[in-house]
Structure formats: structure tokens, C-alpha cells
Amino acid sequence: MTDLQLLTEISSLPSEMKKEVKDFVEFLKTKAKKQEPTRQRQFGAAKGFFVMHDDFDEPLEDFKDYM
């Protein structure tokens, strides 16, 4: 069955049954997520993405009037 045929079949249903189809689709999506294998995070994967400069803790020029 093609997507268009499925859409045609669903659109011909009464509104209460359309709600049931929507609920069933959400259930299937949840079920599919549970079946997906979860990847383990790798330590140090973001190494080098962020750089902290030596003057990070120095006061900013904009705030000298307040210090």
C-alpha cells in the first residue's frame, strides 16, 4: 500500500476513528524508539570543541566603571 492509498483510507474514516489511528501511530513511534539501540557516549568526544583562553577570569573592559 502506498502512502497516498493509506492517506485516502484514513481520510475516509469518521473523526473518532481518525483519533484512534493517530493514537496508534504514536504508540508505534514509541515502540520503535524503545527498539533502537542506544549508543554509548564516548568520553572525550568533544575534546577541542571549546577553548578557554588564559584571560577568561579577567574583568571585562565594559564593566570597569562598576568595579
How would you describe the overall organization of this protein?
This protein is mostly helical and 67 residues long. The chain has a domain at 1-28. Helix content is 45%, strand content 0%. The chain has two helices and no strands.
Would you tell me the structural class of the helices and strands?
mainly alpha
Number of helices: 2
Total strands: the figure is 0
- Helix amount, in percent? 40-55%
Please state the average pLDDT score.
Answer: 89
Distance between the termini: 71 Å
Largest sheet, described in full? none
Q: Would you list the SSEs in sequence order as H and E? A: HH
Large-scale geometry: elongated
- Computed CA radius of gyration, to the nearest angstrom: 27 Å
Poorly predicted tracts of residues: none
Strand content: under 5%
Features of this protein?
67 residues, mainly alpha, 2 helices, 0% strand
How does the SSE layout of this entry go?
Elements (H helix, E strand, L loop, with lengths): L2 H9 L3 H21 L32
What's this, in brief?
By secondary structure, the chain is mainly alpha-helical. It has helices spanning 3-11, 15-35.
